From TrEMBL:
Residue ranges annotated for the GmrSD restriction endonucleases C-terminal domain, each copy included: 107-201
InterPro entries documented for this protein: GmrSD_C
UniProt protein name: GmrSD restriction endonucleases C-terminal domain-containing protein
Keywords: Signal
Position of the signal peptide: 1-24
Claim: Signal is one of the keywords in the record: yes
């Protein structure tokens, strides 16, 4: 005898079917209030040494475990149903990009974004670091520095700070500001005045 689903059970089934692909969130994103206090603690000064920046000064991607490098590790961490080959390359899965709300089913459509871009970090204090410190920064899985996002959105962001670029998905800007501030605070990087003003405004959307 065929059983009929109750309205509640049917709603649960529909929710499961219609729900967007699950996505992981990078760790250690502070609350808005904590982010605000950390932003207040950051040194405010103009960026410097930008002309001496070279991406090669931040070695990445490095091997994290077995045959998996940093990019592949983030793709596995932040994707849903990710299948990899023997070399750790993702052959299938889905990735939700929080910057624009798009979901992708090919890893080639996904970039791993440095929340605080390498050039921005350099001009905010990383020019004085050792190569080992810059390598640790460029491959940092312990905080909200690395995000799996739509490739052309990442390319549009480039090296811009929040005074120059913000995620097209406005509802994500609170989280974006909290993550940006955490990275700058943890790595003891400075902010410039326009950047601080933009971050403050973004926190006010939380």
């Amino acid at each position: 005898m065929r059983r009929l689903l109750s309205a509640g059970a049917l709603a649960v089934v529909l929710t499961i079917v219609l729900a967007p692909a699950a996505s992981a969130t990078p760790p250690n994103i502070p609350s808005a209030s904590t982010a605000a206090s950390r932003l207040a603690a950051l040194t405010v000064r103009a960026e410097s040494n930008h002309s001496s920046y070279n991406r090669d000064l931040f070695p990445h991607w490095i091997t994290i475990s077995g045959t998996c490098n940093t990019r592949e590790t983030v793709l596995k961490r932040d994707g849903s149903g990710v299948v990899t080959d023997s070399g750790c390359a993702a052959t299938s899965g889905s990735w939700y990009s929080p910057y624009d709300g798009a979901t992708w089913r090919a890893a080639s459509d996904v970039d791993i974004d440095h929340m605080v871009p390498l050039a921005e970090a350099w001009s905010s204090g990383a020019y004085a670091w050792t190569t080992s410190q810059r390598q640790s920064y460029a491959n940092d899985l312990g905080g909200p520095e690395l995000w799996a996002v739509t490739d052309n959105v990442n390319q549009a962001k480039g090296d811009k700070d929040p005074a120059e670029w913000q995620p097209p998905l406005a509802s994500f800007r609170c989280t974006y500001a909290r993550a940006w501030i955490q990275v700058k605070w943890y790595w003891n990087l400075s902010v410039d005045s326009a950047e601080k003003s933009a971050l403050t405004a973004m926190l006010n959307t939380c």
